Each structure stands twice: as structure tokens, then as C-alpha cells.
Amino acid sequence: MRLLFATLILIGGLQDAGASEAQEIRFCPADVARTYPLDSRARVQSLLLPHIAVINHATAPFTVDAIHLELIKGGELLDTRRLNAADVARLASNSAETQELARDASFMFCGTELIAPDIKLAGPVLHANEGLVVTNEVFAFSRERDTLRVRVEGTVAGKGVELSATLPVASNMARTDWLFPLRGVSYVGWGASLHTAHRWVLPEAYALDIARLGESGLTYRGEGTRFSDYYAYGTDVYAAAAGKVVEAVNDVSEDATLLQRPNETTDAYFARVRENQAKLMESENGPMGNHVIIDHGDHVYSLYAHLRPASVRVRVGDNIAAGTLLGRLGSSGNSTEPHLHFQVCSGSSALQCNGMPVSFSNIRVLWAERERALQSGDIVIVK
């Protein structure tokens, strides 16, 4: 991913041309900040701000006094949030944890482009090659905004310094006529809603985890200890749009011992899940299991993950039409139960990419009064 940044240095109210490389503001992702509808009918949008890094390259210490997060439309400032000294101190107190996460899960921070290997996270006082990262700031607003502006107030050698950087804001879906990747009736357990984990992870910010429900309202029959207990297991998975297959993995085994055991507590189960995830993260494709990635052109790629072993029907290099059978739904890779993980991203890597929101032309949502963006928990019916 290419990371862009813009910086304006003001000292004592005047631009200091000699300090133009002294401090900077970086974004991740850096091309655009994407919104997702909270309510399509009322045109209410949610915006999870990109990660923001304030970095000092100068020898002189730079103290971050306050950070202003501003949303603009047509040049008019409409929304603002000020992170004061106490907020900055709170962010600084998380620096060690954030640095460790950026090292162990770099895909959440645009690789090393936001936080280069020689940058140490600290604050509020930043010495040479130290930075402060702002994460998990959320805005909600009606209609659209077109620009995010970040202003940082600071001090160097007793003089006031202001940094400013902007990023475009977009409220559109990925430009393709998408078909839902399963047929019949499906359950979207996790979507782009803020109360499920996808939205907080860069490549899967708008991804869907898709399963099926039985008459009981559960995703499985019996005790759910076998893959065959799950209603979705073995379901056909189809290409959501035409494109070229750039990755196809078909030989990853499934492990039924990773399913939640009867009477196993949630805490105990997810401790096992995290242990397994750590092992899978040692290889880039480990979390995906058997999967297919399709290039749709214009830097748009779709991923179909956790497929059943030996079920993938396409090969790398195949040019396929929308609706082509790709394989069967399974539970390989980082999967807590049989489901399809579907995401659209800006790059061909399943992890090192920026997630993109999509809408589907062939579905209706149970109980929805009109067409709207999918949310976590929706029941989807393919027309």
C-alpha cells in the first residue's frame, strides 16, 4: 500500500521553511477515509478514522499539546473533536501496546508505512524519531463529508507549532455490480457494523462472515462438534463479479477440535482461538485457509476464505464470469465454525490491503423497508 502524508509546520504563526521535514502527520490508509451507512434511509454515516501518526524527526523535542479532528464539506467545517492534554496522555500511555501490535500484526497499520521500524512510539513529548498514534476515533453524521483535516498543536523550544494534514472522505461503495456469493437464505453474522470485530481491522473493515441458520435459530444442529452439524457446511460459493483468479489455495486441512466444545465457557474457548490465531499468523495465507482471490481491475479484489479442502474449482489465471462456482463453504484457516469470509480490498494480498464497502444487486434483507447497506446480524435472501 502506498502511504501519503501532508504536513504544514507553523512556528510563532509563520511558516518555518527550514523545519518542513521536522514533524509530520501520517494516515493509514492514506488514500481515502471511507464511511459506512448506519442508516441508509436517513443517510446517517459512520466514519472510523484512519490511524493517525504524529512523528517528530527533529533533534529538538516536540510536545503534543492537543489534536483537532475536523470533518469538512465543500470547505465548510461541520464536525470537530479536540483531544486535549489528558487525551494525548492517554494515547501516549498505550504506546508500548500499540507498537507491539504494529509489529505483530502489521497489516492493521499499513505494514511499516505508518510506523517505520526506526520510529518509537511515545508521547506526549516526542524526541527525535518518536511518534504518537491516534486510533479508534469514530464519527457519526448525516449525509456526506468530503475531507478529514487533522491539526496538531505542539511546542518546540517554547514556541508554538501547528501541523495540519488532510485526507479525502468517501461515502461510495466499490464500483462493481456485485452478486451475493451464496444462494438461498444466509445469515451475515459479522459485517461492517461497529459492534463486531471486522470494522476495527483494516483489510476486513467491510468484510462479511456468512453462515446459515436452522429452524432452531442456531447455525448448527445437535452439539455442533462436527463440521457436518453446521447448516452452511458444504454450501456452494460463487464469484461475486467477473475477473481473473490471482490466488487459489485448495489443500489446507480442517481441524474439528477448534470448534467450541459443549459446556466450554466463552473465555476458555476464545483463549484457544487466540492461541490458534497466533500460530496461523506465522504465514500470510494461514488465516485464510483454502481461499480464492479474484482481480476485478482498477485495484479491486475479492476474497473468499475458509473453503472446504479439495473443493476449489478454479485455478490461478482463470478468467471467470460473475456467478462462477468457486468452491464449497468450509472451516479451514482461522475459522471458529463453518462460514464464508468475503471481503473486497484494494490489493491482491488478503491481509496487506485496505477494505472496501460493497452493495449487492441481487438480494433483499429480511424486514428491511427498502434497499440498504448490510449490517451485522442481517438475514439475506438472494432474489
Task: Describe the secondary-structure layout.
Blueprint (H helix, E strand, L loop, with lengths): L9 E2 L2 E2 L7 E6 L4 E7 L4 E5 L2 E6 L5 E12 L2 E8 L1 H9 L1 H10 L15 E2 L3 E2 L3 E5 L3 E5 L4 E10 L2 E12 L14 E6 L17 E4 L24 E3 L4 E7 L16 H15 L9 E6 L5 E7 L11 E2 L4 E4 L11 E6 L17 E3 L12 E5 L1
Parallel strand pairs: 4-14, 9-11
Antiparallel strand pairs: 1-2, 1-14, 3-6, 4-5, 5-12, 6-11, 7-8, 7-10, 7-13, 13-14, 15-16, 15-25, 16-23, 17-22, 18-19, 18-21, 19-20, 20-23, 24-25
Identify the notable features of this structure and list them briefly.
383 residues, mainly beta, Immunoglobulin-like, Glucose Permease (Domain IIA), 2 domains, ten-stranded mixed β-sheet, nine-stranded antiparallel β-sheet, 25 strands
Plain-language structure description:
Helices cover 9% and strands 36% of the residues. The chain is mainly beta and 383 residues long. The chain folds into two domains: 10-170, Immunoglobulin-like (Sandwich); 185-382, Glucose Permease (Domain IIA). Strands 1, 2, 4, 5, 7, 8, 10, 12, 13 and 14 form a ten-stranded mixed beta sheet that branches. A nine-stranded antiparallel beta sheet has the order 21-18-19-20-23-16-15-25-24, with no helix packed on it. A four-stranded mixed beta sheet has the order 3-6-11-9. A hairpin with a 4-residue loop joins strand 4 and strand 5 (44-48). Residues 1-20 have low confidence and may be disordered. Keywords: Hydrolase. Its EC number is 3.4.24.-. InterPro entries: Cell_wall_metabolism_enzyme, Dup_hybrid_motif, M23ase_b-sheet_dom. It comes from Steroidobacter flavus. This is M23 family metallopeptidase.
